[in-house]
Amino acid sequence: MTPLNIRYISIEGNTRSFVSHLAEYADKQHEENADKPTLKVEEISEQSDFIDETEPYFAFVPTYLDGGNGIDNGVKELMTNVLGEYIAYHDNRKQCLGVIGSGNRNFNEQYCLTARRYADKYGFPFLADYELRGTTRDVTRIYDLIVKTAIQAAK
């Protein structure tokens, strides 16, 4: 299986840390079983040159809000907008197999709100969530999920 493509944004390093652990886990899985895919990871930032995605990918996005509660009195996303712009660039949204969100459960309804909004806005599924930097169990769970999703999409 070809590597799975990951596009993510990380503000405070939590998403970067999680994706790094996910890539390490994928490498170990691939070493044990060559049929298990590795990951091809790219961080999207304000300095990124937008490209036309030609292969399927998964988006990973944390939630940072400034103003509004995201439910009944609006929402103002903060700092993660460039990933949304990247997904919206040309036809990139059509290649996205789904989004994985992260956040802090202390924020209740706002937890993973950005990922849910991207799924609604761009028409792909909200696949999973994890809190802050995630756990080892989250890494295993999300790796298995994205592999399964990629296999289903390839059929």
Could you explain the architecture of this structure?
This protein has one domain (4-154): 3-Layer(aba) Sandwich (Rossmann fold), CATH 3.40.50.360. 39% of the residues lie in helices and 19% in strands. It is built from five helices and five strands; from the N terminus they run E-H-E-E-H-H-E-H-E-H. The chain has helices spanning 14-32, 81-88, 92-95, 113-122, 136-154; strands at residues 4-8, 39-43, 57-62, 96-103, 126-131. The chain has a five-stranded parallel beta sheet, with helices on both faces. Strand 1, helix 1 and strand 2 (39-43) form a beta-alpha-beta unit. It is globular.
What portion of residues is helical?
Answer: 25-40%
Tally of DSSP β-strands: 5
Low-confidence region ranges: none
| Spatial strand arrangement across the major sheet | 2-1-3-4-5
Organism: Furfurilactobacillus milii
Protein name: Class Ib ribonucleoside-diphosphate reductase assembly flavoprotein NrdI
InterPro entries: Flavoprotein-like_sf, RNR_NrdI
Pfam families: Flavodoxin_NdrI
What layout of secondary structure does this protein have?
Elements: E1 4-8, H1 14-32, E2 39-43, E3 57-62, H2 81-88, H3 92-95, E4 96-103, H4 113-122, E5 126-131, H5 136-154
Parallel strand pairs: 1-2, 1-3, 3-4, 4-5
Protein name: Class Ib ribonucleoside-diphosphate reductase assembly flavoprotein NrdI
Organism: Furfurilactobacillus milii
Pfam families: Flavodoxin_NdrI
